[in-house]
Each structure stands twice: as C-alpha cells, then as structure tokens.
Amino acid sequence: MDTIDMTIHGLHQALESKQLSSVEATKAMLARIEAVEPQVGSFITVTPEQALAGAEAADRRIAAGDMDILTGVPLALKDIFLTEGIRTTCGSRILDNFIPPYSATSWEKLRDRGAVLLGKLNQDEFAMGSSNESSAFGVCRNPWDTTRIPGGSSGGSAAAIAARQATATLGTDTGGSIRQPASHCGCVGLKPTYGRVSRYGVIAYASSLDQVGPLTRDVTDCAIMLGALAGYDPKDSTSVDLAVPDYVATLPNGVKGLRIGLPREYFIAGLDADVQKAMDAAIETYRRLGAEFVDISLPHTDYAVATYYLIATAEASSNLARYEGVRFGHRSANAEGLIDMMTKSRSEGFGAEVKRRIMLGTYALSSGYYDAYYVKAQKVRTLIMNDFIKAFADVDVMLTPVAPTPAFKIGEKVNDPLQMYLSDIFTIPVNLAGTCAMSLPAGFSTDGLPIGVQLIGRPFGEEAILRAGYAFEQATEWHRASANL
Ligand code: GLN
Fold first, then answer.
1. What is the mean pLDDT of residues 262-274?
2. pLDDT for res 227
3. What are the start and end residues of each CATH 3.90.1300.10 domain in the chain?
4. At 417, is the pLDDT very low, low, confident or very high (cuts 50, 70, 90)?
5. Strands (E) located in 142-290
6. Has residue 390 got a pLDDT over 90?
7. The domain defined by 3-261+394-480 carries CATH number 3.30.230.10
8. What gap in Å lies between CA 6 and CA 424, rounded to an integer?
9. I need a surface site. Which of 63, 108, 272, 472 has the fewest CB within 10 A?
C-alpha cells in the first residue's frame, strides 16, 4: 500500500516492522502536500523542517524500542491549535503574524508520543462557518469535487485526509465543525463530550461549546487518537477528571442488542434524497448486525439553530475582545491615538463573517436585550439538554444524518448566511447538550460525493459510538473509497 493511503495502525505496523522509516513516511506526505496543494488548499502553513526533525527523533525512538502507536505518524492540525514557535492564524488576518509562545495541550500530548507535525490546516476564520469560505487564507476545495466546499469550519482538516496529505488531523467542533466536514469529505470525525479533551491552547470561539477531536481514515484510528487526547488537564478547568477507557480494546464488541434511537425530528421533509438513502441503508445494516431501533423524540430540535447562534455569537463577542492590536496580532499602521488604533486594527483584521457575529453577540448581550435573547437562549439550551437526557433513558446511541445535503458548491451559500446556518441543524444540538457524536462514511450521492451518518452517544459514552461505528465499518466498504485526485 502507498504510504499516503495508510491508516495510523497500518503505518504503525510498517514502522514497527522496519519496512518504512518515519523520515520516509514524512517525506512521502510532504511530497504529496506539494503535489496536490494547488488543487486543494488544505494548508495555511506547511512545516517541513519541524516535520523532518520530528521524524528523525521518532526514528531514533523506534530504533531504541521506545515506540508508541503514534510514534513517527505524520499529522496536521487545524490552525486554531497554538503551536510554540509556529505561526498560528486561526484563519484570520488579525493573527497573520502571530507566533505563539506555548502549545495546546492536545498537540503536546500527541507530540510527546512521537507524532510528527506536517503543518497547520485551513479553516473558517475563528472557526465561524460551515464551508471554509470565511478563511482569510484562500479557498479550500473538496478533494472529491474541487468545485465544492470541503465543509467547515475544520475544512482543511477533512480535505487533508481525503487528499491523502496527512495520516490523521485534529479539528475543533463548536456546532458541527468536525462532523460536517468529515461527512462531506468521506472521513471519520469525532466530537468528544464537553470536558473529555482539554481546550487549553485552543483559540476560543464559544467556550461553553468548543471541543477538540480527531479526523481520521477509519474508526480504529479515531479510537487511537481519542485515547491519546482524552483526559484531565489542570490547565483547563472545564476538563473532567474521569478515567480514559481503552477505546481500541472495546471496538470489536459488536452491536447485538444495542438500542439505537431514531429522533423523528431529524427526518425532515427537506432532507436530500441521497442522504435519506444512505440513512436507510445504514439502518438496514445495523438491523442485520443485531441492533434494535427505537423511535424517539427530541422535541426542542426546532429551536437549536436559533439558540446556538445566540449563545455562540455572545461568547464569541466576548472571546474576541482580546484582539485589539495591543498585545499581539495585527496593529493598524495608520491610526491616531489608542481608540482609533483599536478600532482600525479590528476593522482591518477581522473578516465580514466574524464582524457579523461580534455584532450579533454584542447585541444579544446588551442591556435591555440580555434577558430577551441571551438568558432565553440559555433556558432553551437546558430544554434541549433535557431532551437528550430523557431520550437516552431508553436508548444507548442515536443514529441521524450529519448534514441535510452533501457538499454544496463553492459560492452557493456564501451570500445567504441564514441558509448556511440552517445547514448545521443536525450537529448543533449535540454541542448544546454537551454530549459526544461521530460522523461515519455511509455512502455516496448520485454525483459521487461522500455522505456521512452521525452516531450520537451519552455524555462520556464515546466507547459506545466508536464500537457501533466499528461494527458498521466492518460491514461496509465506504471508508475504503478514496478521492480521485
Ligand atoms: N457552522 C457553525 C458555526 O459557524 C459551527 C462551527 C464550528 O463548529 N466551529 O458556528
């Protein structure tokens, strides 16, 4: 098998048996990045020197018999993860020249196990978007059809896997940003339970919703990555001190008797026919594997998008107040006095979508409107959370679509933010409820575009969705298909 096609576990075997060195694997990935970047645009920054130094260090570890499953594996990170000494832009002009003085815990954990950093991936500006089109660093294209979006906001993270530019990647998910691009690019993407993975050193968008998670070629890789990322971090007070299970060990346990809920609110009239077909086929597969289906209801689903876009913008308006040109980031060159400098730095540094959200969020938090919008949204969030708690009394996992349609055309929704926001309908409720979910390759549209299905788990129930995902993957071939690029 070609190095660029390998999974983490496949590459690990090749490294362990000395068929391949990490330097060779890393060079193969760097060559692939160079070859296809002009067509894809997954990367904001490629880091060949760091990659080769990391690969050499990994090869020394391997030679010394000090090897972990991630040692020598070439990875790439969404440009929202702080990386010490390496430019980190978060997809924004305002951080164009920002070199962080420290690294995100999630990257440190992978690096300490010997993972190799290929570079920093394209994304929507400050992770605001569903198409990667709000990036200040150019379009990222879907490797399956380069006239289409890869999804967002972790568009580069999904496109890099589909274009075989990295063995696995990290993304973040505030309202669907791991699962939706994974679905559009035919990879596996998991949003862990809020608190499962440290957010330390991850540039904040909406702090009560943001979570870090992996995008991978298959479910086994996803379990490997989650196992490496999960766990308590004293530097993130919202990370939870719960033992990390061995996610790989329980993968083969099967789904016999597993109770799978089908939330009726997710099977709406506007659902694309190809997405419906993939859902029907997935249900059939799980039935055959011995799972039981239960019709359930999440009655407040209709309010999820509005609730999310109030809470997320409110938190963003507060989080993004720190970019004022004083301590770091872009500072306007033609300003007079402090206020003018801050205003101009922000006006020049932020893109249109980020400005829209800062204005929406500031409005929702302003006195006089705070109760009507922000407090109301928090109350509805509790109702949505309770919907999930009630439904999970009866089922082990839920199965739903990830997005109402396959990847849309570049430019199609960019001038219609409401349409763009509505496409998050199936992913947003999971973030509001704080629980975990995974996107899994489950078919193709008549145009040959990948379609994913979503498994939603109980809080800290990642084991169950990974196990159910693995059973599905063993019974299907979807994850083996690769983009013709
Ligand atoms: N599309 C959603 C938004 O624009 C979700 C983004 C995300 O999960 N970071 O906010």
1. 91
2. 98
3. 3-261+394-480
4. confident
5. 168-173, 188-191, 211-216, 259-263
6. yes
7. no
8. 31
9. 63
With a cut of 90, say whether residue 333 has pLDDT above it.
yes
Q: How far is the CA of 298 from the centre of ligand 1 (A)?
A: 21
What is the spatial distance between Cα 162 and Cα 450, in angstroms, rounded to a whole number? 10
User: What single string gives the DSSP state of each residue in 57-76?
Assistant: HHHHHHHTT---TTTT-EEE
Integer Cα distance of 284 and 258 in angstroms: 14
pLDDT at 474 exceeding the cut of 90: yes
Q: Rounded to 5, what percent of the chain is helix, strand, coil?
A: 45, 15, 40
Catalytic center residues: 78, 153, 177
Ligand 1 binding pocket includes 175 (Cβ within 6 Å): yes
Confidence check: pLDDT of 278 > 90: yes
As a whole number, mean pLDDT of residues 340-360 equals: 97
- Angstrom CA distances, 459 to 180, 193, 216, 277, 299, stand at 20, 6, 22, 29, 19
Distance CA 135, CA 131 (A): 9
440 phi, psi to nearest 5 deg: -135, 130
